[in-house]
Each structure stands twice: as structure tokens, then as C-alpha cells.
Amino acid sequence: MKYFYKLRSKILKEGLLETSTRIYIRQLQIPEDLTRFGPPPPNAKGFFIGDKLGGSGWEVQLPDGSIEKYYVELPQDIGFVSLHFPDAPKCHLGQEINDTSIPNLAKLYIDYLRHLVMAAKEKFRPD
Q1: CA dist 85 → 43, 64, 71, 88, 96 (Å)
Q2: Distance between alpha carbon 77 and the CA centroid of its chain, in Å?
Q3: What DSSP string runs through 2-59?
């Protein structure tokens, strides 16, 4: 709980949300596996895995010369990308946290809040 409180305060005060990306590639064979994503979009200049949003896909050059991203789903048998907050907690309720990805930390946080609300409802339930 304290971690998310401090993170929220940092975002509000400094306007910063730092994340890191972790990429695990099980097996990727280029160019064969690229065909699994369908034909590249017109003007595709390259393929990326694990950008700052955790996405993967094609970099496409637009007529004005700028680059846009065209995202695709990365199949699990190729690998996966996970996003992480900086200095994530290593322990929760006395248990070691092995998966410090943002979705897992958020799940632990929401589960804790859910339990807290249920306990409060039980304690303050009118008789």
C-alpha cells in the first residue's frame, strides 16, 4: 500500500511515471516468424519487440517522414513483454513477490483493498 501511495505522490508532484520493460524471448526465427503477423503494413521500416509501453509491432514511415507504430500481438510461444515500476516491492504481507510486473502488483494492491473493504463491512455491519 505504501509503495503505491508514494508512487502516486511522485506522479502527482513531479509528473513522472517511470517504467522499465522486460522482454523474454522463448524462440524467434527471423524472417520466418514475422510472417505470423501477416503482411507488413505499407511503408514498414522495421519490427520492434517491447517498446516503452510494452508493445510489439511494425514501425511505419508516414508520407511526412515521421514514424508511427502499428502494434500486433506477440504470440506467447515466441515470448512475452512485461512492464515494471522502478524499485518495486519485493515482499507483500510477508510473502516474497516473484512477479513484479505492473499487472501483478496492481492485482495484489486491488486484492488487498478488496479484503480491507470486506473486513470493514464485517466489522461495521449494523446488527
Answers
A1: 34, 35, 22, 6, 17
A2: 18
A3: HHHHHHHHHHHHH-----EEEEEES---TTGGGGGG-SPPTTEEEEEES-TTS-EEEE
User: Looking at the structure, do residues 74 and 36 belong to the same domain, yes or no?
Assistant: yes
Q: Is the pTM of this model over 0.90?
A: no
Residue range 67-111, pLDDT digits in tens: 999 999 999 999 999 999 888 999 999 999 999 999 999 999 999
Do 94 and 74 have their domain in common?
A: no
**3-state helix, strand and coil shares in percent for the chain, rounded to the nearest 5:** 30, 30, 40
Question: Quick one: cell of 101?
Answer: 510486473
What is the residue range of 61's domain? 28-78
Residue 22, beta-bridge partner list: 82
